[in-house]
């Protein structure tokens, strides 16, 4: 992400404890598009995220146009952990995740070689209750974690281990965009992913990634990973027990480990999730809202909800892991 010019200093943001910075759409209405784009991107650089309220987005085609206008390109998702509906190239539904379950804080595709530098969210239908897309400052989380734990993850990195099968979780086709074994193998080799085909056609993968990175614009050290979210201990207890009973510890759809392969115990996962919660900001969705999130500096999650919810997602500003220190 390059640093934009920042005519955003004159914009009147609303700040409330425990809530993300909020920009009323009237503050930018009538701006030329280039000025509007620079203003919003400047606010994201400065604050890590900004919620634009009253923007009036009402149809997927409108959302696509705004996403493309604000991002330095939209990327196609690979290695998805849950299925999405595709609205247009690079414009997706929120991940299919049970409405009654919490989606832990994470940085989108932080386990992949290519990931978005900017996340774009647009709410078309707000749920009756809950369903907030919370955000958390990753530098604050990093500083609050025990130094010994951070040192270990910084030295070793972390592992994501996945098992794909036809019964549960994302399929091979969902994650890789194809079920052709040769194409899947080529992708894995190109992206430093170990793999092994299992009896019955399933696929096992393992990848090793960094847990702490330096932001390419601000220079801040950031806790950038999905160690907590994709760990088995964040599954619903009855779901985890069922999966262990049926597939065994090496057959879970996903789990995370220390960089040397050691299991991560529940106490560590609970510590990570409670630390995220201390830094989480929430603002209930309203139809027409637009939320921009710096995916490196700011983690995001999703609260349980009731009623219909339609939030569209764009994966903007594609970056490679090699771009980060």
Summarize the structure.
The chain is an alpha+beta fold and 325 residues long. It has helices at residues 33-47, 60-70, 138-144, 147-156, 172-176, 181-190, 237-247, 266-278, and strands at residues 22-24, 49-53, 86-88, 91-93, 103-106, 114-125, 129-130, 135-137, 158-164, 193-197, 203-209, 212-214, 221-223, 254-258, 280-281, 290-294, 298-302, 305-306, 310-320.
Can you offer a commentary on this structure?
The protein has 325 residues and is an alpha+beta fold. It folds into 2 domains: 20-137 and 281-318, 4-Layer Sandwich (Double-stranded beta-helix); 140-275, Double-stranded beta-helix (4-Layer Sandwich), CATH 3.60.130.10. It is built from 8 helices and 19 strands. The chain has helices at 33-47, 60-70, 138-144, 147-156, 172-176, 181-190, 237-247, 266-278; strands spanning 22-24, 49-53, 86-88, 91-93, 103-106, 114-125, 129-130, 135-137, 158-164, 193-197, 203-209, 212-214, 221-223, 254-258, 280-281, 290-294, 298-302, 305-306, 310-320. A hairpin with a 5-residue loop joins strand 10 (193-197) and strand 11 (203-209). The radius of gyration is 19 Å and the shape is globular.
